[in-house]
Amino acid sequence: MQYEPSGIQFGKDKQETLNADCKRCKYKFACNGGCPKQRFTVSPNGLPNHNYFCQGYKLFFEHTATYMQEMCNLLKQGRSPAELMWMLNYREPKTSATKMSSIGRNSPCLCGSGQKYKRCCG
After folding, report:
1. Per the CB 3.0–4.6 Å rule, which of 30, 91, 103, 122 could disulfide with 118?
2. Start-to-end C-alpha separation, the chain
3. For residue 90, which of 103, 99, 80, 79 has the smallest C-alpha distance?
4. pTM surpassing 0.70?
5. What pLDDT score does 106 carry?
6. For residue range 69-105, what is the model confidence (pLDDT) as tens digits?
7. Separation CA 44–CA 33 (nearest Å)
C-alpha cells in the first residue's frame, strides 16, 4: 500500500505539534493528541495547542480501562471479548444473587452457546 506524500507529512506534523502535556499523557497511545483542527484550547498547565476534547477523552479512558483490560485478558485466553458482557450481567456480586437464582441447571446457558447451563458456564 502506498501513501500520498501529503498524508505522510500530515502524520509527521500531527506528532510534531503536540504540546508537552500531550507527549507525557498516559493516554497518548490511544488518542495521539486528537485531530489537529481541535487543538485550540490551553492545557491544564497553560500550554497552547491542546485538544478541546482532552478532558472527555481522559474521562472515557479512565472509565473503560478496567473493562478494556478484562477484554484483553479474555483475548489472551483465546476467548471472545463479548464474554465480558455476560460476566458483568451475571457474575458481578451486586447482581449475581438475583439473576443467578432464576437460572436452573437445565436452563439454556446465558452465554448463548446453546448448551444447558450445567454443562457450559454453570
Report:
1. 122
2. 48
3. 99
4. no
5. 76
6. 999 999 999 999 988 888 888 764 544 444 445 566 6
7. 14
